[in-house]
Amino acid sequence: QNSPFFALLEIIRQGKATTIQKIPFGEIWIKEK
User: Nearest-CA neighbor of 17 among 28, 1, 2?
Assistant: First the structure.
């Protein structure tokens, strides 16, 4: 499944998340690792 949610999890897992990841259903705040 290639939904924004799973894409977001992959970004977090890779440790490449920025403070805000803009996705189709809104903004999710992520603390940088």
Answer: 28
Three-class DSSP category at 18: coil
Give the H or E element holding residue 2.
none
Give the count of beta carbons closer than 10 Å to the beta carbon of residue 31: 7
Please report, for the chain, the start and end positions of each structural domain, with discontinuous segments joined by +.
1-33
Whole-structure pTM value: 0.34
8 A C-beta contact, residue 28 and residue 5: no
pLDDT tens, the chain, 33 aa long: 567 777 777 777 776 655 555 555 445 555 554
